[in-house]
Inverse folding.
């Protein structure tokens, strides 16, 4: 799938036009909400959507300026192949190309696993709108929309990956960020439609 300037998805090769300087994002689709690539198009990106099972080498063949890891259903632990793919993408972010990576929901959990963290099933899943999340960088509280039953254990994150957002209801991890590499993710849905819109700044930060 590619997404054009109108935000509409279609099957085909990604359009390449001379002088097109829009950042090219390759989005790994694990059950992605279509409002996510629409947001990426709205902030000025070209978007190519590939299946979540796509190998890292095939993703990097697209020469992306950034990689997005989507939301999706269920337990992240059986997705060992995807976790290995993301490990390779993380290594690519550490080299001279420095490909930024942004994950949402399942993408957040898969990034956590790729960094070596443990994921676990919540006693009570987070569903619906109006979940308060504190941005640990700014101190601001964002009202978020959530839909997940699993979480990343922050105690198992490596030293160079920090908790960037925390759920104020149960103190679970809602975001992580690498301290040196351009990699970050959130557990909730900043693209939620019709809202809330407190967290849409994350797309601008990725851009």
């Amino acid at each position: 799938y590619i997404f054009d300037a109108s935000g509409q998805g279609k099957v085909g090769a990604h359009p390449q036009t001379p002088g097109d300087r829009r950042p090219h994002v390759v989005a790994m689709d694990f059950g992605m909400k279509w409002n996510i690539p629409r947001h990426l198009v709205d902030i000025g990106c070209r978007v190519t959507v590939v299946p979540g099972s796509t190998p890292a080498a095939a993703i990097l063949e697209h020469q992306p300026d950034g990689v997005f890891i989507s939301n999706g259903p269920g337990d992240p632990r059986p997705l060992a192949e995807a976790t290995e793919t993301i490990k390779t993408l993380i290594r690519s972010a550490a080299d001279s190309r420095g490909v930024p990576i942004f994950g949402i929901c399942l993408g957040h959990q898969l990034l956590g696993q790729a960094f070596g963290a443990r994921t676990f099933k919540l006693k009570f899943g987070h569903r619906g709108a109006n979940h308060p999340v504190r941005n640990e960088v700014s101190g601001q509280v964002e009202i978020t929309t959530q839909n997940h039953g699993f979480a990343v254990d922050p105690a198992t994150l490596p030293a160079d990956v920090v908790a960037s957002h925390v759920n104020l209801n149960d103190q679970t991890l809602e975001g992580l960020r690498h301290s040196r590499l351009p990699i970050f993710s959130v557990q909730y849905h900043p693209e939620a439609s019709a809202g809330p819109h407190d967290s849409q700044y994350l797309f601008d930060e990725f851009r």
Summary: Confidence is low (pLDDT under 50) at residues 11-15. The first strand starts at residue 2 and ends at 3. The CA atoms of residues 190 and 197 lie 7 Å apart. The first helix runs from residue 35 to 42.
